[in-house]
Design brief:
There is one protein chain. Helices cover 27% and strands 21% of the residues. It has a 5-stranded parallel β-sheet. Strand 14 and strand 15 (237-240) form a beta hairpin. It is globular. It has 10 helices and 23 strands.
Amino acid sequence: MRQIDNYDVIVVGGGPGGVGAAVTAGTAGAKVLLVERGGYLGGAGTAMLVNPFMPPLTFPGPNDQPPRKVVNAGTFQRAYEGLKVRAAARREAWNQGWGAIHFDDEAYKVVLDELVRQAKVDVLFHVSMFDVEHDGPRVQAILLAHNAGPMRISGKVFIDATGDGLLAARAGAEIQIGDGHGKVMPMTLFFTVADADLGNLPSNQEMQKLCAAGNRDTPALINTNISCMHTAPNGLVYFNAIRIPGNTLDPFEISRAEMEGRRRVENFVQWLKAKVPAFKNCRLMKTADSIGIRESRRVIGDYLLTGADFDHAAKFEDGIACCAYPVDVHGDQPNVVRLQYLPLGEYYQIPYRCLTPKGLTNVLVASRSISCDQRMHASVRAQPTVMCLGDAAGFAAAMALPHGDVRKIDVSALRQKIRDYGGVIEPPIFKES
């Protein structure tokens, strides 16, 4: 087994949280390794084609009152600026939508490569973590599978950015799954189409009505769900439509869901061409490399963020990230999406204690798997928020060196580092740059 021993911080998972963590830990001077099982970074936004980025801003009422405030910045803002330079990101107009950010997923891969390279992060693609070595509460090394053979890599601080809480779970952390009975939100296979008549696309509301009656059409629509569709700067239309229930930790069920998803996508595109005039000349461009997983494990930390914290727009003395995204629950039934919004102009904070798993000394969580209940999970899982969680975890990991105890850092100093980096603790009024 190949042995590597010289890293301060090891980040497992190259999605938004992993990128944020690796970039800030590297920026803070730590020697960082970022490992990712795929061949590129971005996670949900690239491998799963989750598009657009949900608004990194608070929600205003009519006439922009109260004014929108910025809740997600830091590495996310740097990524957005990198996309804008390439004409690869566009923000929705306020009067037409939420102010979500549509982006080109191929350009996003390159932008993230640049960010980790600038932070002097070592990146290891095409490896899968299958286990950890730990001595009681302290993780010593991760074990990776690669085509060249197994690898053992040791470090001082470990950041679980897998999205599934895999590292923390293998180290013995307490976890929860779904609703207490193991039921989670359904998976979605995202897909894109090309050559649609972009000037005559139906609204999302019109598409939902068409889909609801689609099982009576010829060809009949197999999957009558649709959450939304969006046009990105690359001219492709991104669809969030194919919902498949299943156990998101069972490889057989995930494999079945991906095959069933592709069957439904083919049917959906045939139906679009036959029944929706704007798509009569469209063609399927691609399905996502990985089916979109909304939830799996949640790691229990020193504080459990709950739906009550959402209801009260809670703020914390150790708040290290902010979120204004609604509770967004997807059901198994056609067109069932339950959204619960915060009061206009409000946001909540996520405390540092949600990133520190109970019983582990040198592990932080920087993904949708942070310590929260199922209802709150449906809000914190949005990509901009997760990248900000990564920012906080990366700075905290560097501050914990050389001994690696993540509870012995000065959280006030961590909050100041986040501010100095351009991250958000107290949201400022938004001004488009």
